[in-house]
Amino acid sequence: MKMKLIATAALALFSTMAHAETRKFAMNTVEVSGVKMWLPSTMVVKKGDEVEITATSRLGKGTMHGFTIEGYKIVEAPDEKGKVIKFTADKAGIFPFRCHLHPAHVGGQLVVLE
Ligand SMILES: [Cu+2]
Fold it and tell me: Staple 107 to which of 28, 67, 80, 98, CB 3.0 to 4.6 Å?
């Protein structure tokens, strides 16, 4: 009985781990009607997933925009060449992201499902 419980728990843990995936996003700064924003504005992943965001400023050569997700302690400043940001989504919740260099620049949110 006890062994069966342990086996079931191990299987549950294994199946949770087996479902972790690498989620890739191409995040771009664009300007629409004078408003600068990061698109896509929402990223959805599952807890335990590896997240790989390629963030690029599409507003011309020499432009740089901040990309910060405070809930995951990520602070980057991608330019037109782009920057690859990798981390493990190890906690569930809704985590806003924004450009810390320009307060008017519209951000979005990373949604990490339990
Ligand atoms: Cu910006």
Answer: 98
